Amino acid sequence: MPDEDGYFGESVAATYDESSAEMFESDAVDPAVDLLAGLAEPAGTGRALELGIGTGRLALPLSRRGVEVHGIDLSRAMVERLRAKPGGDAIGVTIGDFATTTVDGTFSVAYLVFNTIMNLTTQDAQVDCFTNAAAHLEPGGRFVVEVMVPDLRRLPPGQNAVPFHVGETRIGFDTYDLATQSMSSHHVRVEDGRGSFRSIPFRYVWPAELDLMARLAGMRLRERWEGWTRGPFTGESRSHVSVWEKTTG
Fold first, then answer.
1. pLDDT grade, residue 46 (50/70/90)?
2. What is 7-52 written as a DSSP string?
3. Tell me: the pLDDT tens digits for 126-173?
4. Which of 4, 64, 225, 233 is the most exposed, fewest CB within 10 Å of its CB?
5. How far apart are CA 33 and CA 161, in angstroms?
6. What is the CA radius of gyration of the chain?
7. Which residues contact 131 (CB under 8 A, 6 or more apart)?
8. Which residues have C-beta within 8 Å of that of residue 185, sequence separation ≥ 6?
């Protein structure tokens, strides 16, 4: 169950970096930071706003590039990990729901990565997030989202669960409700003969749906790639990185 930190409280924050270790490798981080730094205009020196900053996986290396980064996050436990890292005290963070929380000033780029848009579990909240991002952007500023493409092609008729990890000590699977676009990720661990279970709710969202949310917020699609290395987005892509530009004042 969530607490004041949402679903990313102390028990998750304590092992978050280790459990997502592959996402902290340079081949996952560097292309993302390269793209974001280039959008932080004047290139590499503009201001960037990270929605769901977490433990600083991208914010810290982006800050080291000379970009002024500010973050919004609901989880105090995750932000404490960010603060404990070298350079973490130089990044401003506002605690709150990134769909509605506001901060001072404007930014040349705002970004939301690693499927975090899906932590907003209603369409209204996701629309609010786009509106909030646009409100923080300078005219011509960019909003970047990295998110999975709903993996519904792996669901055979009559089945609503898809495994994403099966190991000796950990099992992970997603369950889908196609009528509401709600899903949950379930994590089962067995360590020293003891089991634990954790479930986190999400709302999956389609690329075209995101484009409409952007349009409602006064933004238009500029780029969409399969990932941070900017490969083409196709019908077989399982994720995308999309860039929308603020077109209103």
1. confident
2. T-SHHHHTTHHHHTGGGGSHHHHHHHHHHHHHHSTTTTTSEEEEES
3. 999 999 999 999 999 999 999 999 989 889 899 999 998 999 999 999
4. 4
5. 34
6. 18
7. 216, 217
8. 164, 172, 173, 174, 199, 200, 202
Q: Which two structure tokens, joined as six digits, stand for 214?
A: 């952007």
3-state secondary structure at position 109: strand
> If you search the block for the tokens 């436990």, which residue do you land on?
77
Hey, what are 90's tokens? 């130089």
Give just the sign of the alpha carbon dihedral 46, 66, 223, 203. negative
Assess whether pLDDT exceeds 80 at residue 27. yes
pTM value is: 0.93
Q: What is the dihedral of CA 75, 56, 70, 108, to 10 degrees?
A: -130
Pull the structure tokens for residue 9.
Answer: 């409280």
